[in-house]
Structure to design on (427 residues):
């Protein structure tokens, strides 16, 4: 570990939570350099929905490289890009009756978000954007301005002009409809909230703590956008690519966003980000929003292989995702019922589940203990108080159950340690 401490900035994050040197990875397993085995319940924060080194993807990449086909081409036309665009149109957009145009942005999620915010402001000639409490949209300055978590939002070094936050679904508890509040602010021209160019929303807040918006609430946001001539941006960077069951997370609610930001698993594990936009919003001049790494040909190859393989028959893949998600939900509920003293509450959909514990440190302790037991699982939420179950969509059932059993062992050993400490204190 010494070279990392010597050379790499203090900004290092995940290496502190999972302090081993990883080397080999296949599917939902990875191994450190000494051959220790870990089950992956984190999936690169949603980048590895198809698992590590998925052979369908790796074989396509190896073949492409061996034939010396083009890797970097700025945004020039390539055969790899053509195949990806055709696949995106025929396998994903057309069957869903979506007529989006697509813009390749810089390769990470935050680039897609920046692009969406910029385009929305340009088209509407308005500067304000509304975001929601606990939203996470990235950490470059524009995206940071619509990200809620105070850990990332030190007022002293940055500006975040022209964004306002509104309460997400359930923010004030189950009995308060937060959309009444939002609508009132927009209706009242003296509310202090400028009419926004766009509202940006996640259908399920991943980093924010696995908070689910109801279908009704999402339709309500869309209604408000239509009533006030505001663009609706769905940030599907983490919840897209099948994470919640269907390919796009907003499919369940039937809404039609004007803009959709997309990244993470679309590149099959390689960096790729894009913005879907209704064609009339495509008001860019040629080259007006540019960048060196827009559209990575290796990621196009990986993406086309994954889309063709998994999404040709979406019903089947979605059913598998939901089936595995049910295993997670059933098993985690059983664990929570067996150990009521931890007070955990489960929520989620598809293959994204979170358990919130009343003791805000407990989720981090479980993550730490589970790692000792050979499982990589992360926390989410403003206080890292939610344990987030995020395995690859392709994980084997057996491995999924093994991972869950190992997490249960972690919970049991933490609870018995706690009991021992209490008993020690009483003696
Ligand atoms: N939006 C959402 C919903 C995300 O979950 C993330 C990353 N966790 C981002 C944007 C930013 O993506 P990136 O880290 O690739 O910039």
């Amino acid at each position: 570990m010494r070279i990392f401490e010597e050379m790499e900035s203090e900004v290092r994050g995940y290496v502190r939570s999972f302090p081993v040197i990883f080397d080999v990875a296949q599917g939902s397993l990875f191994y450190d350099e000494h051959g220790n085995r870990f089950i992956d319940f984190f999936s690169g924060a949603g980048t590895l929905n198809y698992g590590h080194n998925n052979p369908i993807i790796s074989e396509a990449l190896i073949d492409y490289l061996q034939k010396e086909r083009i890797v970097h081409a700025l945004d020039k036309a390539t055969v790899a890009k053509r195949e990806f665009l055709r696949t995106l149109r025929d396998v994903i957009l057309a069957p869903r009756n979506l007529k989006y145009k697509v813009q390749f942005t810089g390769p990470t999620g935050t680039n897609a978000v920046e692009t969406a915010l910029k385009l929305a402001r340009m088209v509407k000639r308005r500067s304000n954007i509304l975001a929601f409490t606990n939203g996470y949209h990235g950490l470059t300055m524009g995206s940071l301005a619509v990200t809620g978590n105070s850990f990332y939002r030190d007022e002293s070094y940055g500006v975040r002009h022209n964004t306002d936050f509104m309460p997400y679904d359930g923010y004030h508890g189950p009995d308060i409809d937060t959309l009444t509040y939002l609508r009132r602010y927009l209706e009242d021209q003296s509310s202090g909230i400028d009419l926004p160019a766009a509202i940006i929303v996640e259908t399920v807040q991943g980093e924010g703590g696995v908070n689910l918006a109801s279908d009704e609430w999402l339709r309500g946001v869309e209604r408000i956008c239509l009533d006030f001539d505001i663009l609706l941006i769905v940030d599907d960077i983490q919840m897209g690519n099948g994470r919640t069951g269907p390919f796009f997370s907003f499919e369940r609610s039937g809404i039609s966003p004007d803009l959709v930001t997309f990244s993470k698993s679309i590149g099959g594990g390689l960096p790729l980000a894009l913005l879907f936009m209704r064609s009339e919003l495509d008001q860019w001049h040629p080259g007006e929003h540019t960048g060196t790494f827009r559209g990575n040909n290796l990621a196009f190859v990986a993406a086309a292989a994954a889309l063709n393989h998994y999404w040709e028959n979406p019903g089947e893949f979605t059913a598998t995702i939901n089936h595995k998600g049910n295993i997670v939900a059933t098993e985690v509920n059983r664990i929570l019922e067996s150990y009521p003293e931890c007070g955990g509450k489960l929520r989620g959909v598809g293959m994204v589940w979170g358990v919130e514990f009343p003791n805000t440190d407990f989720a981090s302790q479980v993550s730490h203990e589970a790692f000792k037991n050979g499982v990589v699982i992360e926390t989410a939420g403003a206080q890292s108080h939610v344990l987030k179950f995020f395995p690859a969509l392709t994980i084997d059932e057996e491995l999924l159950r093994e991972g869950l059993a190992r997490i249960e062992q972690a919970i049991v050993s933490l609870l018995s340690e706690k009991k021992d400490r209490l008993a020690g204190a009483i003696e």
In short: The domain at 2-39+314-376+389-426 is CATH 3.90.1150.10 (Aspartate Aminotransferase, domain 1).
